Each structure stands twice: as C-alpha cells, then as structure tokens.
C-alpha cells in the first residue's frame, strides 16, 4: 500500500491505474461476500410469521366500509357485531400450551392469561418449568409481574413471600418471626414441558391428567430441529378450529386455489375454474377423519394432497396424518418427497371467543432453511384462509348437513368428551371484551 502511494505521489500513472483496479476488485468481492452471507442468513433463518386478530380477513370490509377506521378498529367493531351463536362451554378439559420453551429462560417468570385463569409461569434455576395461580394470597400482587425466581420458588414482588413451584406452598415470609401458616399457598397447576411447549392441564372438575402429551423421539434426540413457526389470534370458539379436520368438503373449496393466490379470500376466488378452463395450478385433497378406538382423546385425519397442473397432472403430492390429541393439540406428520417432518398446531383459549393458535415445525437438519420455510409459509397461507372464515362466521349448533358432511357430526360427538358438568359457559357481558 505504502509503495503504491509513494509511486502515485511521484506521478506514476500506471501504478495509479493498477492500484485503482485492485481497490475496485476488492470492493466488488467484499460486496459479493456480504450479499451471499446476507442471502444465506435469510434463506436459512426459520420463518416466524405472526398475525394479530385484525391481520387476517376483513379485507372486504376495509375496502368497502371502513369510514377511515384503522384495521384494528374495524376488527373490533366486527367482533362486537358478530352473531356468536349457541356455543358449547368455552373452556374444554385437556392440555393447553401457555408458552413455548424458548420464551422462558432459567429464572424467568411470565404472566399468561388463558382459560379464564391468570397464571404465573416460571422456570427454576435448574430449568424446571412451573405454573402457579398468579395472585399472591397475601395481598393479591401478581406473581408473574416483577417477581423473581429463588431456587424452585417464585418470590412475590410486594412483600417477598416465596412460593414453591411444585406445590404452591409458601416457604418463606421474610419479616415474620412466627410460623408460616400451612394455608399460605397458591394453586400449583399440573404442567408438562414437551416438544418445545409448556403445557398446563385444565379440568373444570379439578381432575388430574387422564393422558399425557407424547414426547416425539426425533425431537428429544435432536434428530429433528426447529424449522419455523407461525402464531395467530382467532375470533372463534375453540371447537371450530379442530373441526376443520373433519370438514372434508371445505378443502377443495377453500384450499383448492393455488397457494400463490395468498390468504385473501377474494384473491383466492381467482384460482377457481368458472370459465370452463381448469386453473393452471390447483390443490386437490382427500381426507378421512376417524376417532381413535384405543385412545379416546385422540382422533386422526388422514390427508392426501396433490398439487395439479391444469386440474389433471399431479405435480407435488404430500401425505399428512393429523393426530388431534385432546381439544388443544394437533400433531401433523408430513410425508413429502423431501422426507418426513412434523408440525404442531396448538390452540389455547385466551378468552371465550379468542384463540391463540401456534404452529411449530420440526424437521431434519437438511430440510431446515428454504424447504422448511416453504412448508411453514404454505401451511400459514392455507390456515389464514380458514382464519378469515372463522373470524366472521357464527357457530351453528344445529348445522344443515348432507351425507358427505357426516364426519362433522362424528367430530362433534367425539369433542363432547372434553366438556364436563362445571365447564364454564359463555355469558356475553362478562366474556366479550370490547377490544383486545
Ligand atoms: S402481596 Fe405478595 S407478599 Fe404481599
Ligand atoms: Fe381448512
């Protein structure tokens, strides 16, 4: 470098041109390296798609009827106006996801509202997750807000009482010289950390868990790794969401138009053939829904999917087994030409008519990146078409069905097992927040 500068200062123009071309070459190759590193990062980074209650559906109303309202205001108004229908009890019995494992570090506490309850979810210094009732029995402070974890206990931020995660017993009152009363305790909820989620067991009759969420060996042994996620809030009763698996007829109608039309229902209409010509790309589905005879909390939808060219030529085919376990969890096993992968769908009621739905994909390492991204994106687009329908539909307690819809009846009968005598019922004033 010094040599170049010396020669240039002495007026040697040849050296100047060599120097210039070397600098340009260096800049171009650095830019190319930077660009490829950035491209690799975005290609390999798992997709994380998050949609709030107002983000999906409502396109039509926004176009025609918004009177200057924001999307959020319009969605809130649509929620208020929606005819809810005669819905079943709002919180069925079963395992429900409160948060994902990644979202709770050691010694971290989170506040989670769901199932009409307020929870303090925390992880001990040793890494064990616990779920306690949120309100401190002393003077009612929230144990999930501003508290800290001490060993396997959570310490209330107000006066420092400590509660053990395993049983909710108060183990320390820092300023008393007397004995800690036995009744100084909060409710400790049955919880389990499985496949990247922290679950709580909810039962309206306070019964203990009657089944377990299965651990997937490929995830436990880290043979399959996290490949992306999506997250939604949906304005519907919880029973509507898994009902999709038994609703055979909606598949070709709602999910027939190619993925490329996206999730806007009006745009997707463009993918239907009403001019005598088969669309260039179309999805075809076959599904069979069955309650499992061995485990009564399980039902299985077996799906065969084909992407066809001009309605005839199968282009890509995928077989999916969707195993519904209880009211709040589905495990979808995809058998693709790239290999097998697994997608969890979890549904947690955070209000009677607001469900938080998570999708989380696990796949072999070689699939993580563009292939996994495509799966998460494709599944999300199709799911959003359902969300657009759920957000505005009413619950029909006595649906007008034809013979081909028979699985819907079977599903509804099967789902009844998750309600019990004291399952909370919907009351309009208490249970519909005017906004979220
Ligand atoms: S309110 Fe929790 S220790 Fe007082
Ligand atoms: Fe669907």
Q: How many discrete structural domains? A: 2
Q: Structural class, from secondary structure content?
A: alpha+beta
Strand content: 25-35%
CA gyration radius, whole angstroms = 27 Å
Organism: Daphnia magna
Pfam families: KshA_C, Rieske
Keywords: 2Fe-2S, Iron, Iron-sulfur, Membrane, Metal-binding, Oxidoreductase, Transmembrane, Transmembrane helix
Cofactor: Fe cation
Describe the protein.
By secondary structure, the chain is an alpha+beta fold. It folds into two domains: 47-87 and 213-431, Naphthalene 1,2-dioxygenase Alpha Subunit, Chain A, domain 1 (Alpha-Beta Complex), CATH 3.90.380; 95-202, Rieske [2Fe-2S] iron-sulphur domain (Rieske Iron-sulfur Protein). The chain is 26% helix and 31% strand. It has eleven helices and 19 strands. The strands form four sheets. Strands 1-13-19-18-17-16-15-14 form an eight-stranded mixed β-sheet. A four-stranded antiparallel β-sheet has the order 3-4-5-10, with no helix packed on it. Bound molecules: FE2/S2 (inorganic) cluster and fe (ii) ion (FE2). FE2/S2 (inorganic) cluster binds next to loops.
Give the gist of this structure.
The protein folds into two domains: 260 residues, Naphthalene 1,2-dioxygenase Alpha Subunit, Chain A, domain 1 (Alpha-Beta Complex), CATH 3.90.380; 108 residues, 3-layer Sandwich (Rieske Iron-sulfur Protein). Helix content is 26%, strand content 31%.
List the helices and strands and how they pair.
Layout: H1 2-9, H2 13-44, E1 47-51, H3 59-65, H4 71-81, E2 94-100, E3 109-114, E4 117-123, E5 129-133, E6 148-150, E7 153-155, E8 162-164, E9 170-172, E10 188-189, E11 191-194, E12 197-202, H5 217-220, E13 224-234, H6 240-243, H7 249-254, H8 265-269, E14 281-291, E15 298-309, E16 313-325, E17 329-336, E18 339-351, E19 354-364, H9 370-392, H10 406-415, H11 428-431
Helix pairs in contact: 1-2
Fe (ii) ion binds near residues 250, 254, 255 and 386.
